[in-house]
Amino acid sequence: HGKTTLTAAITKYLKGAGENEENRTLGSIGNAPEERERCITIAIAHVEYQTKNRHYAHVDCPGHADYIKNMITGAAQMDGAILVVSAADGPMPQTREHILLARQVGVPYMVVFLNKADM
User: Fold this and answer.
1) Cα dist from 117 to 36, 84, 99, 104, whole Å
2) pLDDT recorded at residue 9
3) φ/ψ of residue 61, rounded to 5
4) Which end of the chain is flanked by fewer CB atoms within 10 Å, N or C?
């Protein structure tokens, strides 16, 4: 639904704004062949970026129900979460489970990013 695309867009924007040295492309984040073929995130990807005020360690976690254990591993390290929801498809069956898991492992802040709102 756009989690990896959002991660790539954040690094591209910050590089253009002079806030970050690295621009991570979509292919460099979701780099496993199966991820590219199926358009899903399987493995956790760590992407770091810097602004004038903060350092971010961004963890791109899988959203697909089959890889929920990988999502839990990533969530255990988070200070906050961005929940990506497709406006075209709406919340997926596992969306509620992701919210509950994030709360259970102590993620204190959550932002909902509504993606594909133009569709």
Assistant:
1) 23, 12, 21, 30
2) 86
3) -100, 155
4) C
The structural domains of the chain, ordered by start, are 3-115 (3.40.50.300)
For residues 82 and 113, the answer to whether their CB atoms sit within 8 Å is yes
Q: What is the pTM of this model?
A: 0.66
pLDDT at 13: 86
Is residue 49 a contact partner of residue 20, using CB atoms and an 8 Å limit?
A: yes
What is the C-alpha separation between 20 and 16, in angstroms, rounded? 8
What pLDDT band is residue 70 in, cutting at 50, 70 and 90? low
Helix (H) or strand (E) holding 16: helix 3-16
Helix (H, G, I), strand (E, B) or coil at 110: strand
Give the DSSP H or E segment for 11: helix 3-16
Q: Choose among 107, 98, 103: nearest CA to 78.
A: 107
Q: DSSP states of 66-100 as a string?
A: GGHHHHHHHHTT-SEEEEEEETTT---TTHHHHHH
